[in-house]
Fold:
Amino acid sequence: MAMRNIREEGDSILLKRSRPVTDYNARLHTLLDDMRETLLHADGVGLAAPQVGVLRRVVIVMDTNREDLTPEEQIIELVNPCIVASDGEQEGQEGCLSLPGVYGIVKRPEHVVVRANDRFGSEFQVEGTGLTARCFCHEIDHLDGHLFTERAERILSQEELEEMNRDQ
Ligand code: NI
Structure:
């Protein structure tokens, strides 16, 4: 496993559409392993392949609702994911490892059902609520070249960010 550099805003790869995965080979497994290590090191809750410079439909999301699991165990690998159902609405704060220091208020569904393949190509379905649902939406958006700032109702001001940091 190796860490990969996280691409930041201004890098045009973040605005491109990723291609579906067709080969469930060692190259895909290395990508997923590297994404896991990169996410855990960056202390994030989700990561999409284009963020590490690979235009393939691959994301990982941490199911932070599962407090009984270690961070490593919370990671869900999704290959060619798509949202097949969503309901409810939540409004909350969102950030992105590709936009360090930027936070905004974004509306997302409260609950989503995602269909994806695992690293071996088997199809599965997974559900998420709250932060996990938000994370599924955010990461899948990356695969179509969308950043949360496009969806944000507003971006938090410097003052609000300072207040947020004080509370932590
Ligand atoms: Ni992001």
Summary: Residues 96-98, 138, 142 surround nickel (II) ion (CB under 6 Å). The mean pLDDT is 96. Residues 19 and 56 are 5 Å apart (CA to CA).
